[in-house]
Structures are given as structure tokens and as C-alpha cells.
């Protein structure tokens, strides 16, 4: 039974780890979208600022 419990603990930790990776992936994907959108207006913003 101790081995089963240890396996459950490992599985729980693995699920939390994968969930964290999934959240991180979503944040990075959104960052890429935001930066891509910002890049498209960079030249115009620079011209306005000067």
C-alpha cells in the first residue's frame, strides 16, 4: 500500500507540473501575439514620437 500511495503522490505532482506547463505555454503564446501586434505599429509609433 505504501507503494500505491507513493505512486499516487507522484501522479498528483506530475499532473500539477503539466498543468503549470500548460499555463506557461498559454502565457508565452499570448506574449508572442501581443509582441507581433506591437511590432506592426512600431514604425508609426516611432515616427509620431519624433
From TrEMBL:
<protein>
    <recommendedName>
        <fullName>Dynein heavy chain coiled coil stalk domain-containing protein</fullName>
    </recommendedName>
</protein>
